Amino acid sequence: MARSDVALARARGAYERTHVLAGARGLAIAAGLTALAIGLHRTTSTTWLVASLLGATLATLGWRGGAWRRGALAGVLAGLPVFVAPVVVFALGHGGHCPSCELGPTLSCLVTCFGTSSLAGIAVGRFALADASPMRFAGGALAAAAFTGLLGCATTGLGGATGIVVGLVAGGVTGWALGRRTAHA
Amino acid sequence: MLDRAELQGWMTAAADGDRAAVEPLFSALWPVAVRYATRLVGDAALAEDCAQDALVALFGQLARFDRERDGLSWALAIVTWHCRSARRRVQRRAEISELPALAAEEPHELRDLVRAALAELDQLAPHDRDVIAAAITGDDELRAAVAPATFRKRLERALARLRTSWRSRHGTL
User: Fold this and answer.
1) Does B66 touch chain A (CB under 8 A)?
2) DSSP calls for A79-120
3) pLDDT in tens, A94-122
């Protein structure tokens, strides 16, 4: 085996190790958020499903690297307000308890989840434009933000989940359009 | 002839997670790194070691590559760093092999003590060894690279680690 082959194998190993570590970091972040979700929200079977999806998404995007990884991290940050907002709203409006609105979500569920997701979506859309690979960044960020937010809002039922997805997509498109207009102005 | 634009493209792609860019990037960098390292350290075998270590480090940090910067300059800066470290290591090894000879006339116990101290020094992290070596030999290069207070703090920490390591193996004198 030539010296350059040995060096190539070691360099490739170092490269892959960094990516695997980034994937593991993604899993650790997902585990931390899940633990937080268990403490803050009602735990249902949906929580576990969303937590697994979040773990898989963050691990894959972290391992993939580049704009996907940057987007995933930004997405988790953007999803945090969505993740926490229901608790804050319910603490103020329902005496510190999450209402049991799995079958019929209250209006405050929908408005809170939709409102915070829209704002997160706008932020993701705008930040994505500043990245070297905006589409990948936006894809990674929206997926990570959606699952992070769902970890909080999905516990409030289908209404909360719908609010998140619609809010993120609508906010993302708006943020993207606003960012482009500002760039062209 | 090395195409810098192509190299920059491969480096950017590999930094973005494109596995297909790893091999062409390595193939482009390897000969340049070996030639450059040979010029810096002189010895061909040591130069290959340095080039290998440098490229392993580079590929390990590729995710942090800033595409606005020139990829080749970044790579050569890493090679330079590894060549400097290798030169220091070689220098230190030469100093260590000379020391027992100098102490040949010293009493037996003192020679053993010097050997044990050098072995202990060898167990320390490279940055700790560098600071202690700079303090003993009066190496101005490292002193000039950091603020005097920083150097003092680093030396203090390195000596504390050396003391702890010595105590754990040999107890107190």
Assistant:
1) no
2) HHHHHHHHHHHHHHHSTTS----SSS--HHHHHHHHHHHHHH
3) 655 555 555 455 677 777 788 888 888 88
Per-residue CA distances from B117 to A30, A53, B85, B93, B120 (Å): 47, 54, 21, 14, 5
Cβ pair B63:A67 closer than 8 A: no
- Distance between B63 CA and the closest CA of chain A, angstroms: 7
**Chain A environment of B57 (Cβ under 8 Å):** 14
pLDDT tens over chain B, length 173 residues: 678 889 999 999 999 889 999 999 999 999 999 999 999 888 888 999 999 999 999 999 998 888 888 888 899 999 999 998 888 888 877 766 665 554 455 556 666 776 777 777 778 888 888 888 777 766 666 777 778 888 888 888 988 888 888 888 777 65
* Residue type present at position A95: G
Terminal Cα-to-Cα distance of chain A (whole angstroms) = 58
- Lookup: tokens for B171: 């107890």
| Contact (Cβ atoms closer than 8 angstroms) between residue A161 and residue A114 | no
> pTM for the full model?
0.68
Among A174, A172, A163, A177, which Cα is nearest to A141's?
A172
B169, B135 Cβ separation under 8 angstroms: no
What's the start-to-end Cα distance of chain B, in Å?
A: 61
Q: How far is A119 from chain B (nearest CA, A)?
A: 28
SS3 state of residue B2: coil
Size of interface A-B (CB pairs under 8 A): 63
CA distances from B56 to A21, B26, B48, B49 (A): 16, 10, 12, 11
- Residue B103 is predicted with a pLDDT of 47
Residue A70 has pLDDT above 80, yes or no: yes
Structure tokens at B156: 């203090």
ipTM for the whole predicted complex goes beyond 0.90: no
A52 min Cα distance to partner chain B (Å): 24
| Token pair belonging to A118 | 């829209």
Residue of chain B minimizing CA distance to A132: B67
Whole-number Å distance between alpha carbons of B6 and B17: 17
